[in-house]
Amino acid sequence: MEENPRGWIHGDETAKAMLSRILTERPFLFLPPLHRVPLRVGNVVEIAGPSPSAKSQILLHAAVNCILPEEWKGIRFGGLGRMVMYFDLDCRFDVLRLSQILKHRIMEAYRSTNNTYWKEKGEHQKNDAPTTHMYLCDDELFLDCMRRFLYIRCYNSFEFLAALKAMHSHSQRESEALGVSVHFLMIDSIGAFYWMDRACQPMPIGGSKRKNVSLQSLAEAVVQEICKLLQMQPVLVLATKATIFGAGTSGNDAQRLAHDVNLPILRSTSSTRAFGKWCSEGKMDSRTSSREGEKLMYREYMPSSWQSFVTHRVHLQALDEIISGGEYGTLLTYASQWVQPPLNIKDKFAIRDDGIFLIT
Amino acid sequence: MAESNEPQAKATASVSSSGNPTSSLSRVSKCPETLEEGKRSFSDDAGFARVQPMIEDWHQPWLNGVELLEDSNHNKHFLPTGYEGIDVLLGGGLCEGQLTEMVGPSSSGKTQVCLYSAALVADKHFGVVMFVDTCNSFSPKRIACIVDQLSSSFSGEAKERRLKRVMSNIFCHSVFDIFALLDVLHQLEFKLKQQVKSGDTKICLLIIDSISSLLTPVLGGKGSEGRLLMVSAGIILKKLANEYNISVLVTNHMVGGEGGILKPALGESWKSIPHVRLQLTRDQGSNICNVSILKHTFMATGRTAKFVIHSRSCSVQDGRGR
User: Fold this and answer.
1) If DSSP codes are grouped into helix, strand and coil, which group holds residue A356?
2) Which of A6, A84, A306, B10 has the most CB atoms at less than 10 Å from its CB?
3) What whole-number percentage of chain A has pLDDT above 90?
4) B315: cis peptide before it, omega within 30°?
5) Distance from CA of A261 to the nearest CA of B (A)
6) Is the pLDDT score of B114 beyond 60?
7) CA B108 – CA B279 distance, rounded (Å)
8) What CATH number is attached to the domain comprising A50?
9) pLDDT over threshold 90, residue B180
10) Are B63 and A154 within 8 A, CB to CB?
11) Region entry Disordered: which residue ranges (chain B) (predicted)?
12) What is the Cβ-side half-sphere exposure of residue B44, based on CA atoms within 13 angstroms?
């Protein structure tokens, strides 16, 4: 009994074991704007911005990244090969967009491997079998990936709560069937039922013992359900939030945000610092927001229980600039800024069918 | 992943069970407690197993990507609007299962697109069209005129028969306030629920021209009731579209924004409701309209196309309408 906790504390771990543990808990995800901060399972990330600011697109690209395998039949895809649970509260998810992104990613991986293959073998084999072979295995991989995408649509907060309650047992069933675990829990978008829940009148039925249904109590229940899930089955939560009040320009908000930004990063661990240094060396200075103009800020409307549940928060904005994306035609650009943890960097990115790209 | 949490949970649990139970319990943080609670309620408790099917009744079914794709391929087709520019731009037309919004200033061709797609969809046997008319814009004469144009090669009697068929496939409801609209939509949902069992001819296009004239009077002010009504209408429209494979087309007007630039009415909360937003513009005195994509589920924003609205230069006798 005495030895057990001590052994647990002093437990040695090989570097390999540690790396594989870290990589499952905290897989590296190069997906602007999510690449700025180290995200790990258990984190709750809120992606806020007006419509359109590419919020859902970021979710879809993250989802494709997650459902793609690391490697398949000798070809590297660089995905996580795990499941995604997608809660569609906005009811605007289009499966065609998901399959479009997935197909682009698969084709891109094939193209790059074939190119190196041809380079090694010489030009004369270019019209050989690989192309036909590629289309044959394409479908199998595609369906494998699509099966790892779990989707549910909710038309009101009560359906959402019921779905959250049933989520664990469903994901376990699917995990057993597919042999992989869930990595992402996605919610698009968390404020979808705000106006409906806000109008909930406290009902006198059942006396004072019954909990009243209100915006606050519903948000609390949602947070509680997700908390429960996170303890049983660690996942990374990504939630989008549409700004329904327009860009907040009121003095109150500006003040609050300025206050937030000035706060020291209390939770900054050594890894945060190391990561920040590593991925933004040299770029940090050239893209500070002071030069870019005003900060992105929006009026908060979610109840405090949700606000305090969120561990990371990024704000997005569509820009007027349009850049040319080669074969993809013209691309719209977006700006992102981390509010929690407060990073003084404003990234610009564009979205293509095969990924999200930083613009320098 | 679950295994990595296991030792921690056990360790805390064993600490709390040994020694002084009351004091250690109070010291134990809330997390392990809820963990134990959650575990019990999910797997160990037979009670949860019993209520689980009930909970599954309360939410929509879980689908995986393959099932979603199958549903999309089999049930969600494109309905042509009849205007080549729009149909090419949208990759085939209005998508079933989606809510499409057309926004544009007065006389930019919104109602014409509504009437033309209603006539075409009713004509091509795609199904029944429901036209919710909020500002007396529905014109049976115009429909007759469109059908006349479409069947110019037909003889008199065949034309007559075709017109009758088209007209009987379009149902028009006049609605003048948001409550009446919600009422119509709920009734429609109820009817469709019954219809799925009986298998009648299905409704495939629902047009609301214009939804903004119902919503603007209730919006504004300090209260949230207006936005509640707007979001409720949006959600039920999307629900109808998705569950019963209906394409919903609504129109919206433009208002002056900052600096006098026109912007779509209905504000920020409405923006997250339609799947597809199209903006129509028309130059003064010309019958060429421009359409551009403001938002689309998988197409790039900003793509544009042109289409021509034909003038009313066709002979239709009065009394032929509904």
Assistant:
1) strand
2) A84
3) 29
4) no
5) 26
6) yes
7) 9
8) 3.40.50.300
9) yes
10) no
11) 1-36
12) 7
DSSP string, A272-338: HHHHHHHHHTTTTGGGBHHHH-SPP-B---S-HHHHHH--EEEEEEEEEEEEE-GGG-EEEEEEEEE
The CA distances from residue A348 to A187, A314, A334, A345, in Å, are: 24, 13, 6, 10
pTM of the model: 0.80
Give yes or no for a contact between A134 and A145, defined as CB atoms under 8 angstroms apart: no
Domains of chain B: 2-58 (no CATH), 79-308 (3.40.50.300)
> Cα distance from B273 to chain A (closest Cα, Å)?
7
Angle, nearest 10°, between helix axes B30-39 and A215-232? 80
Q: Residue A66 contacts by C-beta under 8 Å, 6 or more apart in sequence?
A: A79, A80, A82, A83, A84, A148, A183, A184
The amino acid at residue A224 is Q
Quick one: tokens of B247? 């394409």
**In chain B, positions 270-289, which contact chain A (CB-CB < 8 Å)?**
271-272, 275
Chain A residues whose CB is inside 8 A of the B269 CB are 195, 244
Q: Which of A237, A194, A198 lies closest to A34 in space, CA to CA?
A: A237
Q: What letter does residue A247 receive in the DSSP assignment?
A: B
B46 in A contact zone (CB under 8 Å): no
Nearest CA in chain A to B64: A150
From the candidates A20, A94, A299, which should be mutated to test the interface with B, based on the most B CB atoms within 10 A?
A94
Number of structural domains chain A divides into: 1
Comparing CB atoms, the residue among B31, B62, B295 nearest residue A150 is B62
Q: What residues of A are in contact with residue B227 (Cβ under 8 Å)? A: 195
Residue A6 maps to a domain: no
Residue A48: domain span: 30-279+286-358
| Minimum CA–CA partner of A197 in chain B | B228
Distance (Å) from the alpha carbon of A246 to chain B's nearest alpha carbon: 6
Residue A316: partners with Cβ closer than 8 Å, 6 or more residues away: A33, A47, A48, A49, A53, A54, A55, A58, A296, A334, A335, A336
User: Which residues on chain B are in Cβ contact (under 8 Å) with A170?
Assistant: 62
Residue A16, in any domain of the structure: no
A20 domain residue, yes or no: no
Under 8 Å CB pairs connecting chains A and B tally to 163
**For residue A234, cis peptide bond before it (omega within 30 degrees of 0):** no
Residue A336 has pLDDT above 50, yes or no: yes
Residues 6+ apart with CB under 8 A from A347: A32, A33, A36, A287, A335, A336, A337, A358
Q: Which residues, in sequence order, are CB contacts of A70 under 8 Å at separation 6+? A: A76, A77, A78, A79, A80, A81
Q: A313: closest CA among A52, A37, A40?
A: A37
Residue A11 lies in a domain: no
Question: Which tens digits make up the pLDDT trace of A179-208?
Answer: 898 999 999 989 999 988 888 766 666 666
Q: Is the peptide bond before B80 cis (omega within 30 degrees of 0)?
A: no
Q: For residue B232, is pLDDT > 90?
A: yes
Residue B233 contacts by C-beta under 8 Å, 6 or more apart in sequence? B178, B181, B182, B185, B211, B215
Q: What is the pLDDT of residues A146-168, one digit of tens each?
A: 999 999 999 999 999 999 988 88
Q: With beta carbons under 8 A apart, name residues in chain A contacting B68.
A: 95, 98, 146, 149, 151
Asked if A154 lies within 8 A of B60 by C-beta distance, the reply is: yes
Contact A96 B35 (CB under 8 A): no
3-state class of B186 per DSSP?
helix
Listed by number, the residues of chain A in 44-73 with a beta carbon closer than 8 Å to a beta carbon of chain B are 50-52, 67
Looking at the predicted structure, is the pLDDT value of residue B4 above 50?
no
